[in-house]
Write a structure and sequence with these properties.
It contains 18 helices and 18 strands. Helix 16 packs across helix 17. The termini are far apart.
């Protein structure tokens, strides 16, 4: 073969009628056949078969083979071959090269460019949504913003927002946008039925769910699959709006492209769901803080209401909540006063309860004191905090608990009340509206000043103006003490006492408001 026997490219020599007369070693490797099996056969039989049949068509008219160059996919070896047909007077030489790796790189590069283009559009879209979320003040407004922006873009067919119905577990559609072509009616029907769709699963788990292709996925209710097939809907992404352990609703986004939601795009949507959940939570607390009136719910419950009722009965103790500190991942630090039992016994009992991560005795006595309890599971305290309420007080005695929750009048009070009642077998003992007192800055300063002794006030004021509380300190404790003509230990005693009074006043007033 004119020195081409060891050429890295496959070479076949054939007559103008298409009979193979010679092949090199590379060709036998590409076709996974012996030289003897190839020589003497028709070139169209020696080659694997392809859908396009470009090579056979080149040899169809005997004696008139023309030159050709093409790339085709061959299913049998599952490879892409680049083929060059070079005829001369005596023969037709066919060069064959495996271009599968290059084609795969080209395909990946094309996909990456397309994905980057989509990501640029999505990033701009998400940024616009986030800007609008900053000014949103209600759950409904936030949901409407997200759905409208997603549903009206050309990237997606339509989008909708749903949340749990009051007093039940079903998801109810509250807003939608985009050209649904009857799909929303089928989705509403499926939500009312017994089948659990991807949006409902996203709300249950708090995690995004991708379905593609929609028409073939058994996790999608049959009516939705049928309408998806009829309208060319190929993929859907369910995005829960989450903050901590709370799921405030779900957004379903539907697209006509099979690859509409890449890994990067799903990560962006997951971030959008968390930001929207944060915005809903922030709006609730902002509305509560700015409201002139507050709705106060008193809820009573027993052992189903978390670990504290159980511990009060087991230890024959009265427990009262002093304060709460919310942490990441839905964790809640509870500071609880104990009366009638040793705090160590209460802490030991609580540590055995489900949903309690750890306990610590803070102040101990024979029959009173206080403990710190970290909750990680579901409880009325966690539910009230994540649903947008403020726990004003909670007390537990003889296996029963009573919790007072404050809510903004703009909140869906019934929804929150029904959720806690349903999940923890609680009873609504009372509901009332009350006005919040208006306190001026002077009132606050006068009240704080009245709690400090003269020495505490003098020590705090001197330390403040001497930059003792700055980092790094502008003055040491010894230098401040010298200015006051007292010892450093005496200064620190007055500072700690004064700081504790100020912090107590702030947090006690904050919890009341």
């Amino acid at each position: 073969m004119d020195g081409l026997s060891e050429c890295p490219v496959g070479v076949l020599d054939a007559t103008h009628e298409g009979r193979v007369v010679a092949v090199n070693r590379t060709a036998t490797e590409l076709f996974d056949a012996d030289r003897e099996a190839l020589v003497g056969t028709d070139v169209t039989e020696a080659f694997p078969h392809s859908v396009e049949r470009t090579l056979p068509r080149t040899f169809e008219t005997a004696g008139t083979v023309s030159g050709a160059e093409f790339e085709e996919y061959y299913p049998e070896p599952d490879r892409w071959f680049g083929v060059t047909v070079a005829p001369d007077e005596d023969r037709v030489r066919v060069y064959v090269e495996d271009v599968t790796d290059r084609r795969e790189r080209d395909r990946e590069a094309t996909q990456l460019r397309a994905e980057l283009d989509r990501m640029a559009v999505l990033s701009e879209l998400v940024s616009a949504i986030l800007v609008e979320l900053v000014g949103a003040t209600t759950r409904e407004g936030i949901a409407e913003t997200v759905v409208t922006r997603l549903g009206e873009t050309d990237r997606y067919a339509f989008a909708w927002f749903g949340e749990r119905e009051v007093g039940g577990d079903d998801v109810v559609i509250q807003a939608s946008a985009g050209a649904t072509d009857g799909a929303m009616e089928r989705i509403r029907e499926s939500l009312d039925g017994d089948d659990t769709g991807p949006e409902e699963r996203a709300m249950e788990t708090g995690e995004i769910r991708l379905v593609q292709p929609v028409a073939d996925d058994p996790s999608v209710p049959e009516p939705v699959r049928q309408t998806a097939f009829a309208n060319g809907i190929q993929s859907t992404l369910s995005i829960p709006l989450v903050y901590g352990d709370a799921v405030y609703g779900v957004v379903g986004v539907y697209a006509t492209e099979a690859d509409a939601f890449s890994g990067r795009e799903r990560a962006s949507f997951e971030t959008l769901g968390r930001v929207a959940g944060f915005a809903i939570n922030a709006a609730r607390h902002r509305n509560l803080l700015l409201s002139d009136t507050v709705t106060e719910l008193t809820l009573e419950y027993s052992a189903d209401g978390g670990p504290f009722p159980t511990a009060s009965a087991a230890c024959d103790a009265a427990l009262s909540l002093d304060g709460l500190v919310s942490q990441e991942e839905g964790r809640l630090l509870c500071y609880v006063s104990v009366a009638g039992a040793a705090p160590s016994a209460v802490a030991a009992t609580l540590s055995e309860e489900s949903g309690v991560e750890r306990t610590r005795v803070i102040d101990t006595g024979e029959t009173d004191g206080s403990v710190e309890v970290e909750l990680v599971g579901e409880s009325p305290l966690v539910a009230a905090s994540t649903l947008g309420g403020t726990v004003a007080s909670a007390a537990y005695d003889d296996g029963r608990g009573e919790m007072v929750v404050e809510l903004s009048p703009t909140e869906d009070v019934r929804r929150i009340s029904e959720t806690i009642k349903r999940e923890f077998s609680a009873q609504l003992a009372a509901k009332r509206e009350r006005e919040r007192s208006v306190t001026t800055e002077r009132d606050v300063r006068d009240a704080l000043g009245d709690r400090l002794t003269d020495k505490q006030s003098e020590a705090l004021r001197t330390a403040f103006f001497a930059d003792y509380f700055e980092s790094p300190r502008g003055s040491t404790a010894e230098e401040v003490a010298e200015s006051l003509d007292i010892t450093a230990p005496t200064l620190l005693y007055h500072l700690r006492a004064g700081q504790r009074k100020l912090l107590s006043s702030f947090f006690e007033e904050h919890d009341r408001e």
